[in-house]
Amino acid sequence: MEIGEFKDFVAKHESPHGLAGDPHVYVDTKGHPTVGIGFNLDRADARARLAAVGANYDDVRAGRVNLTQVQITILFEQTIADATTDAYALVPNFDLLSTARQAVLIDMIFNLGRTGLAQFQNMLAALNRGDYETAASEMENSAWKQQTGTRATQDVTLMRRGLMCDPLPPGVIPVIPPVSSDIPGYVHPGGTGYPGGVITFQPSNGDGTGDGGTDTMRCNFRKIEVFYNNHWITVLDIYC
């Protein structure tokens, strides 16, 4: 599972439009006004996050204004980064997991929040000792699995297998433009293509190999850059 596929996997669970997201506000299954790719407008920092991308919170929440693809992308990348930080707090060896298993944890945090995932104590303990079969079984036998349906089934499967065997859909990872000059040192040619010509790129300082040597993982991201209309428009600093 490559980084673009990782994000596409989570996005498809959050929005029927995947990485395109929902530019117009809607109410999610838990009753929260939501926009973009699963961005909860009831979260405490929602107003500040929208202001940071140039969107008016009140107008977006009231449905008077839609988000642009660039705004949707930046909010999603930030939320992925937040979820990654939460995952590290719960699974200290997060960077030793294959990206497929990392995607499962991020997806569960999007779905349940950090507090909700923290309730899976036996599953997290199994993950921290590298017992992936037990971790998958704990997920499979939970009330969450019964309540969540297909999303949970896919998460259980990825946790058990440790990699995504399905071929990557065309266009998920496009040709990445040259990295901007402010990223020093080694960079990895991986990125995520969003609709509308928006591309995010992130270097890695911790590439490794997942179980069986077939699944490359990337972790410890320090920057995410957004490329749009032939120029770099923003830099997000990530510490996890």
Automatic annotation (TrEMBL):
EC code: 3.2.1.17
Keyword Hydrolase: yes
Catalytic activity reported: Hydrolysis of (1->4)-beta-linkages between N-acetylmuramic acid and N-acetyl-D-glucosamine residues in a peptidoglycan and between N-acetyl-D-glucosamine residues in chitodextrins
Phylogenetic lineage: Bacteria, Bacillati, Actinomycetota, Actinomycetes, Micromonosporales
UniProt KW keywords: Antimicrobial, Bacteriolytic enzyme, Glycosidase, Hydrolase
Gene Ontology MF terms: lysozyme activity
Gene Ontology terms: biological process: cell wall macromolecule catabolic process; defense response to bacterium; killing of cells of another organism; peptidoglycan catabolic process
UniProt cross-references to InterPro entries, sorted A to Z: Glyco_hydro_24 (IPR002196), Lysozyme-like_dom_sf (IPR023346), Lysozyme_dom_sf (IPR023347), Phage_lysozyme-like (IPR052619), T4-type_lysozyme (IPR001165)
Sequence similarity: Belongs to the glycosyl hydrolase 24 family.
Provenance organism: Micromonospora carbonacea
Protein's name according to its UniProt entry: Lysozyme
Enzyme kind, highest EC tier: hydrolase
UniProt cross-references to PANTHER family, sorted A to Z: T4-TYPE LYSOZYME 1-RELATED (PTHR37406)
